[in-house]
Amino acid sequence: MSDDKRVGIVLVSHSAEVAASVAELAKGLAGGAAAVPVAPAGGTEAGGLGTSAELISAAAASVDRGAGVAVLTDLGSAILTVKALLAEGGELPDGTRLVDAPFVEGAVAAVVTAATGADLDAVEAAAAEAYGYRKV
Amino acid sequence: MLDADFFRRWMTAAAASVDREAQRLTDLDSPIGDADHGSNLQRGFTAVVAALEKEAPPTPGGVLTLAGHQLISTVGGASGPLYGTLLRRAGKALGDAAEVDTGQLAEALRAGVDGVMTLGGAAPGDKTMIDALLPAVDALGDGFAAARAAAEEGAVATIPLQARKGRASYLGARSIGHQDPGATSSALLIAALEDAAEDGR
């Protein structure tokens, strides 16, 4: 699979800094993941804490290479906004999916998996599996 | 019969009401939420009114669908997708009809409330906007005044409830004793139906 058909990853957080940092962390931990399109969509357009439908749509469009887009969120309005955009139709690229996963661990798993050229199902499964990584 | 103009007046009245009550909504959101409900809805409904003035959809369904889209796009908090889904689903249910009666409005709002429950996962009694909206939809057959009374009663009835959805649910039993801001703004939205009917006379 060529690099331009990687699954795209969008990271939606109430905070712009959290979304951007988690994107950086996931790409950094994934090593050779430079080819994976990852875009943060954090905070409101005005720069405050919250969720922006516009930023989410723009981020999803920017990482869409035709292989699907996995969207990971933190909580509350981030989840509801992505779900509402998916229900609207036409707001997010075809093949965009809200992935049920822990934000940080799921993002790392998703980017690492996407870097292998895996498809959207595999990226989603890897991210969701991160719920099972116990720490104690 | 209710035409597109009635639905525009409804949204304008709701925006005015949210403007007037923004501080109260934010105050209610302070002890059990993140103190942004009033300002978030103000931003959303201001955008709704601006979009309706610009585009003036010719049907009731068109007005509600556009309003819902604006709320999803501009609110920035959970109330955006929730109210957006309520109005969009209701708008879709009304289809292309140029005029609808109160019964059709009630059915459409019921479809909207179903959409909100699916999106947010809330059930009646969870201390959410559903606790004002469902009784209002049930009462709508008896007129706008009855719907308004039912919504206001539903909002007040959230005070003794423990929140089971949203940020307030993290507080557990400490959410008891506070009126839910979402149920309160839902009552404002329903009350605005009566304002819209009076403005049209």
UniProtKB/TrEMBL annotation, chain A:
GO MF term set: phosphoenolpyruvate-glycerone phosphotransferase activity
Keyword terms, alphabetized: Transferase
Classification via InterPro entries: DhaM, PTS_EIIA_man-typ, PTS_EIIA_man-typ_sf
Keyword Zinc found: no
GO CC terms, sorted: membrane
Claim: Transferase is one of the keywords in the record: yes
Gene Ontology process terms (BP): glycerol catabolic process; phosphoenolpyruvate-dependent sugar phosphotransferase system
SUPFAM superfamilies on file: PTS system fructose IIA component-like
Protein name: PTS fructose transporter subunit IIA
PANTHER family named among the record's database cross-references: PEP-DEPENDENT DIHYDROXYACETONE KINASE, PHOSPHORYL DONOR SUBUNIT DHAM
UniProt-listed Pfam families: EIIA-man (PF03610)
Domain PTS EIIA type-4: 6-136
Source organism, top-level taxon: Bacteria
From TrEMBL, chain B:
UniProt-recorded name of the protein: Dihydroxyacetone kinase
Record's signal peptide: none
Zinc-finger keyword on record: no
A GO MF term: glycerone kinase activity
Keywords attached to this entry: Kinase, Transferase
InterPro entries, per the entry: DhaK_L_YcgS, DhaL_dom, DhaL_dom_sf, Dihydroxyacetone_Kinase
Matching SMART domains: Dak2
A cellular-component GO term for this protein: cytosol
Annotated DhaL domain residues: 5-195
NCBIfam families given in the database record: dha_L_ycgS (TIGR02365)
GO biological process terms on file: glycerol catabolic process
